[in-house]
Amino acid sequence: MLASNTNLYIFIMVLIILISSFYLISIKSMEKYRNIYNTDNYIDNFKAISFSPVILINDNFLTDEECSHIINLAEKSFSPSQVTSGENDVIDKNSRSSYSASIDSAYDDTIRLIEDRVSKLVGVDKGHIEPLQVVRYTKGQQFKPHFDFFDIKTDESRLKSGQRIHTFLIYLNTIPENYGGATVFPKRNIRIYPKKGRAVYFKNGFENGETDSLTLHGGEPILQDNITKYAVNIWIRNKKYI
Ligand SMILES: O=C(O)CCC(=O)C(=O)O
Question: Disulfide check for 143: which of 42, 62, 119, 219 has CB 3.0–4.6 Å away?
């Protein structure tokens, strides 16, 4: 009787030790996860939310005035967004149904200052920046997951200006969380909500020309009537943009 009680006691102790170790290990791994997403990984006021691919966020990258200024500049020239298809740009409403407008580099002092800011951050000459591309989405409009970099097999002529190594996607207005319009990185299960002035930086490739397929990303459809999402893309090449 005594022996079987002792065995039972040992069994319960082992069980308790196993359960608590499992619990401690899961807390530890959650902490590691939390570290990446919430805490101290700041670079120049950008918070790292992923290291592979590199995705950084700065909630106060543009002022309210800069956001309104960019929307006003773009408003007159929106046309259906296009996607690259080999050597051509084509409208493909199935994958990208938003509207876009291009703003020439250094169009005015506001644009010049923003370009100064991004080129300093990535340490690349301003001449590598493409004309800014403003995007506008209304109900149902979206950009399905895609890459910003070019395909070296099919996009040879575009690569004369080098590869798109850096993307800054900056939201020009705020969309409430359940109204759609988030930017998603499906391979990393990351979802970022549009907030006025918030910049999302991601690194599409490396200086040696290799590209990072983990940067697959898209803009989810807007779910509500009377909601418009505005954002601006700033793409930076690894060569002078011509
Ligand atoms: O609108 C978004 O959230 C994503 C936009 C985008 O990926 C693009 O315009 O290339």
Answer: 219
- Which residue in the block uniquely carries the two structure tokens 């020239």? 77
Residue-wise pLDDT for 25-34, tens only, equals 443 433 333 3
Closest atom, ligand 1, to C-alpha of 81: 9
Cα 184 to ligand 1 centroid, rounded to whole Å: 9
DSSP secondary structure of 207-225: TTS-B-GGG-EEEPPB-ST
Domain count for the chain, please give it.
Answer: 2
Q: Is position 242 within any domain?
A: no
- Do residue 17 and residue 132 come from a single domain? no
Residue nearest to atom 1 of ligand 1 (CA): 219
Q: Where are the alpha helices (DSSP H) in the chain?
A: 2-38, 64-75, 109-122
The answer to whether residues 110 and 185 belong to one domain is yes
Give the domain extent around 80: 42-237
